[in-house]
Amino acid sequence: MDREHRPAAGRQTGETMEEAESLVDQAVREAVAEDVQTDYIAISRHLFSLYEPGRLHRVAGMRAGVMLPLYEKQGVQHVVLTKRSDLVEHHKGQISFPGGMVEPGDRDIVATALREAHEEIGVEPADVEILGALDDIVTTSNFHVSPVVGVIGSSPYPFTMHPQEVAEVIEIPIAFLVDDLNLVEEPRESDGRRFINYIYSYEGHGVWGATGQILHQYVELLKAGLALRTGASV
């Protein structure tokens, strides 16, 4: 998907928000330090049973869906992404989630995300437990993107990459993502708009732009869940 974006809703600012974020960060550090076996997928399952994603209406942009897959491998829970091949028309070699435009046969945005995950990395729809969705975003190239979150049930999973679209399947541990030391927030401006570019770097791979925004949404929601789990006020 396109690398610059407009989120569905604005973010709060000010001292109160900063204090709350500090408490959340402290709680997350304590949770990870005290419990190396934190079940991020179970926490995600609970959070998405309660979370109502921000939806954009009357957007003229091209409709697209992406899958944010969660996956446990050898006892470690991951987020699954892809590295785009050098054969695709746009964003060659960049990191993204499986996803693409809505097609006429798609029943809904979940069907789009499942279809794309199957086409790009060979994940069977029956092997995915859908947890819920994150907030819509609109990219600067006018894609209206709805991210769907799901759990891949089988492990290890026999990922099959689409040879024309995907060069590599990338598995980033969730514990790595919730550690703020692994996040860079880069102020950006485009067409008079100011926004934050969220960047995660893992084993030589950089996640940023629209993919970074979607991943950051998930991580922040998960961090809030971790904070509540440890009894911190958010």
Question: How would you characterize the overall build of this protein?
Answer:
With 234 residues, this protein is of the alpha+beta class. It has one domain (37-225): Nucleoside Triphosphate Pyrophosphohydrolase, CATH 3.90.79. 29% of the residues lie in helices and 33% in strands. The chain has five helices and twelve strands. It has helices at 15-34, 40-50, 109-121, 174-177, 209-229; strands at residues 5-7, 62-73, 76-84, 95-96, 99-101, 128-133, 137-139, 143-152, 166-173, 183-190, 193-202, 205-207. The strands form two sheets. Strands 1, 2, 3, 4, 5, 6, 7, 8 and 9 form a nine-stranded mixed beta sheet that branches. Strands 10-11-12 form a three-stranded antiparallel beta sheet. A hairpin with a 2-residue loop joins strand 11 (193-202) and strand 12 (205-207). Helix 1 (15-34) crosses helix 5 and helix 2 (40-50) packs across helix 5 (209-229). The longest helix is centred in the C-terminal third of the chain and has 21 residues, at 209-229. It is globular, with a radius of gyration of 17 Å. It starts with a strand and ends in a 5-residue tail after the last helix. The relative contact order is 0.24. Residues 2-17 have low confidence and may be disordered.
